[in-house]
Design goal:
Layout lengths: L1 H32 L17 H7 L2 H34 L4 H9 L6 H11 L6 H8 L12 H26 L3 H9 L4 H28 L4 H5 L12 H11 L3 H31 L1
């Protein structure tokens, strides 16, 4: 009995911290999501039940922002995976100054995202930006934040900052792969491409799934780049989910509606996580 009390006593601070930091904000946000609360109101908000959720699910602008975010995540994570895997394979074979190279590659991760957004805002500005100026010097006129290009530019900014994270995960996965299958394939005379495609890649699949999942979930939260550069423009081309929720709740004062949107996004993310981990478990059992 004393041992059980001791265990509960050791866990109690963590539970209290979780309830205070995560539980209460979530509960209060859910309460706001079923009210008509506005930041400009002074009285007690009225309970409207599921009206906000129904309005969110029927809001074309919300689903447009959802599609924009999905496109952004798809482009950014695909590029990060491809580039990150190539760099990880190169770093695995590097024999000199490897620590220095890895430290330099990881540096972008530690810069604040809002600072990264501001840096690229000035670097890519079509009037005062250094990169458009250099392109114009060789006869190329390209507006990085113009129609049809801004979202891809945002994805490239994400790639610049977060490819090192993908490199870190994939490099750890590559170094944890057993050496015996690789050596056996080389003894049998298999080419480097065959070894990578038939041996390395299948063994790396669990790490790839986790890396893609983590980066996709993190990329869905993109806000700083949009806020620092395009503010959702041109038009609504770069209006991501987080920026749309911010506009609804902060700029337009409809905090109840914004909370319901946030919970819809949360449910979608939780569904993706559950499905992904179930597939991982099935793959391990098969």
């Amino acid at each position: 009995m004393t041992t059980v009390k001791f265990k509960h006593g050791m866990v109690a601070p963590l539970v209290a911290l979780f309830v205070g930091v995560v539980g209460f904000p979530l509960a209060y946000a859910f309460y706001l999501s079923i009210t008509d609360y506005k930041l400009t109101d002074r009285g007690t908000p009225t309970i409207v039940g599921a009206d906000n959720y129904v309005a969110t699910l029927g809001d074309a602008a919300f689903w447009q922002a959802f599609g924009t975010t999905a496109t952004y995540v798809g482009v950014a994570v695909a590029l990060e995976l491809t580039i990150g895997l190539a760099i990880a394979l190169s770093l695995q074979k590097q024999r000199w100054a490897s620590d220095l190279t890895r430290a330099m590659l990881l540096a972008p991760m530690f810069i604040t995202p809002i600072a990264v957004g501001l840096i690229f805002r000035f670097l890519l500005n079509d009037q005062i930006g250094a990169i458009p100026h250099l392109l114009q010097a060789v006869g190329v006129d390209y507006d990085f934040f113009g129609p049809g290009r801004a979202l891809f530019t945002m994805a490239v900014i994400d790639v610049w900052q977060w490819t090192p994270f993908m490199v870190l995960l994939l490099l750890a996965g590559l170094e944890s792969i057993p050496k015996q299958p690789l050596e056996a394939a080389k003894v049998d005379g298999a080419s480097g491409w065959y070894v990578f495609r038939r041996v390395t890649l299948p063994l790396l699949v669990p790490v790839l799934v986790v890396a893609i999942l983590l980066r996709s979930l993190d990329a869905m939260k993109v806000f700083e780049y949009v806020f620092a550069t395009t503010r959702g423009g041109p038009g609504t081309e770069t209006q991501t989910l987080q920026y749309f929720v911010y506009q609804t709740g902060i700029q337009f004062f409809r905090l109840g509606s914004a909370s319901s949107m946030a919970f819809v996004v949360l449910l979608v993310v939780l569904t993706v996580i559950v499905v992904a981990f179930r597939r991982i478990d099935r793959a391990k059992q098969s």
